[in-house]
TrEMBL record:
Record-level Gene Ontology MF annotations: symporter activity
Function statement: May be a proton symporter involved in the uptake of osmolytes such as proline and glycine betaine.
Record-given protein name: Putative proline/betaine transporter
PANTHER family linked: ALPHA-KETOGLUTARATE PERMEASE (PTHR43528)
Domain Major facilitator superfamily (MFS) profile: 36-445
GO cellular component: plasma membrane
Source organism: Neomicrococcus lactis
Family, similarity comment: Belongs to the major facilitator superfamily. Metabolite:H+ Symporter (MHS) family (TC 2.A.1.6) family.
TM segment ranges: 48-67, 73-96, 108-132, 138-161, 173-196, 208-227, 262-284, 296-316, 328-346, 352-369, 390-415, 421-440
Keywords on record: Cell membrane, Membrane, Symport, Transmembrane, Transmembrane helix, Transport
Region of interest called Disordered, as start-end residue ranges on this chain: 1-27
Bilayer topology annotation: Multi-pass membrane protein
InterPro entries in UniProt: H+-coupled_symporters, MFS, MFS_dom, MFS_trans_sf, Sugar_transporter_CS
């Protein structure tokens, strides 16, 4: 019997005010929730492994696509492409949010993973500058734009999906699966990069080695899509459609009736946007290019930090369920304001152990934000515009500050001559997030609104 059959569907239904059946979250079985968590983890993992491969192999990609520039300028060009791909994310947030709030979270997520995997696979097939000249970086830019468009629907959709399936007292824990799976995708990307740089010489890595993680996107993406298509949509969304309360233009409703939480949400995302890409994506490049650490050791340090990050982030989700979203998010901002600059100063060390401990500490601080943010953003908006509100706020902040973080960090160091410039950038982001969260409403104990 299929998952969409009347018999299975009826298990989650109860009466509504209009006499129609309505989904009851408390009627969802453990097996159903386990399938939802597994599918959300795998799908998000695949998308972010695809997305991370570019960041971790940036120094090699710079040589392949920008060989005639000096090393620093080539790296800036590579990160500029990384940043430009984020410019489509607000547009993608509107489109995926509209689809997710109109035709369902599951359908939107199933398409986003397919588009991301196809674009990533095509990156692995691209000829370099030596073959196509300027056509090579232009094609790379086009595929990065497609990747950015796809990624704009993933994080928000997976978070809304999990929050709407979760028990009321565990929404923080369930939503923390999204950043945990994101970090797992980054972790595999880091392991691949470490293995490739350790096993291959520079020429082999430039000739063909860098393509391997991109080519893996096709089979991984098909598996993720297959798993997602076997799920039912969330009880909250099914209830909305049964009662015919879904809005025809979610974005218009969002800006008209929920502009204040939208602005606060953008501010709250700022620390996540800058912190995530500086600490977990840009850091290997920072350690190798700025601090002079061996490239393989840089990847190993980031890999260990990601492992601890995954464990910490699920704990953070539980803490936010117990103590509230605001307290945990504000604690993260305060810690970054106080300790980011000293931590970056200690990275200029001859001791690999010290560098490793600093990265673990920065990752742990970041989990206080990242593990709480998905449930915080999802709870800020009612079901009718939840996907749109999350997607627009999250992607707008990431387009302006997240995707540009590696580029800005590299540029700040070049312009100021100060290797601590990325740390001060993080401090500024933390201060803005602190203000936004302080002005927001605590939602962890409230029922989800329709």
């Amino acid at each position: 019997m299929s998952s969409n059959s009347p018999a299975n569907h009826a298990q989650d239904l109860g009466p509504t005010l209009s006499g129609q059946a309505r989904p009851r979250p408390e009627g969802i079985g453990k097996d159903a929730r386990r399938r939802v968590v597994t599918a959300s983890f795998i799908g998000n993992f695949v998308e972010w492994f695809d997305y991370a491969a570019y960041g971790y192999l940036a120094t090699t990609i710079a040589v392949v696509f920008f060989p005639e520039q000096d090393r620093q300028l080539a790296l800036l060009s590579t990160f500029a492409l990384f940043a430009i791909s984020f410019l489509v994310r607000p547009l993608g947030g509107f489109i995926w949010g509209h689809l997710g709030d109109r035709i369902g979270r599951r359908n939107a997520l199933s398409w986003s993973i397919l588009i991301m995997s196809f674009a990533t696979f095509c990156v692995g097939l691209l000829p370099g500058y030596a073959v196509l000249g300027f056509g090579a970086p232009l094609l790379l830019l086009l595929l990065r734009l497609v990747q950015g468009f796809s990624a704009s629907g993933e994080y928000a959709g997976a978070s809304a999906f999990l929050v709407e399936y979760a028990p009321a007292n565990k929404r923080g824990l369930y939503a923390a699966v999204v950043p945990a799976s994101t970090a797992a995708g980054l972790l595999l990307g880091s392991l691949f990069a470490a293995a490739l740089t350790g096993l291959l010489d520079a020429q082999a890595l430039q000739d063909w080695g860098w393509r391997i993680p991109f080519l893996l996107a096709a089979p991984m993406g098909l598996i993720g899509r297959y798993i997602r298509t076997k799920l039912e949509d969330t009880p909250a969304f099914r209830e909305l459609t049964l009662e015919d309360e879904a809005v025809k233009a979610p974005a218009m409703d969002l800006f008209k009736n929920y502009w204040r939480p939208l602005l606060l949400a953008v501010g709250a995302v700022l620390l996540n946007a800058v912190g995530f890409y500086v600490i977990l994506s840009y850091m290997p490049t920072y350690l190798s290019e700025v601090m002079g650490l061996n490239q393989t050791l840089s990847f190993i340090a980031t890999t260990v930090a990601l492992l601890t990050y995954i464990g910490f982030i699920l704990l953070t989700g539980m803490l936010s369920d117990r103590f509230g979203r605001k307290k945990v998010l504000m604690a993260a901002s305060v810690l970054f304001i106080l300790f980011t600059v000293p931590a970056f100063a200690l990275l200029d060390s001859d001791s690999f152990a010290v560098i490793l401990l600093i990265q673990i500490a920065l990752g742990a601080m970041l989990t206080l934000n990242d593990g709480t943010l998905p449930s915080f953003l999802a709870e800020m908006f009612p079901t009718r515009v939840r996907y749109s509100g999350f997607a627009v706020s999250f992607n707008l902040a990431n387009a302006i500050f997240g995707g540009t973080a590696p580029f800005v960090a590299t540029l700040l160091i070049q312009v100021t001559g100060n290797n601590l410039a990325p740390a001060w950038y993080l401090v500024g982001a933390a201060a803005i997030s602190l203000i936004a969260v302080a002005l927001a409403k605590e939602t962890s104990k409230d029922a989800l609104r329709h």
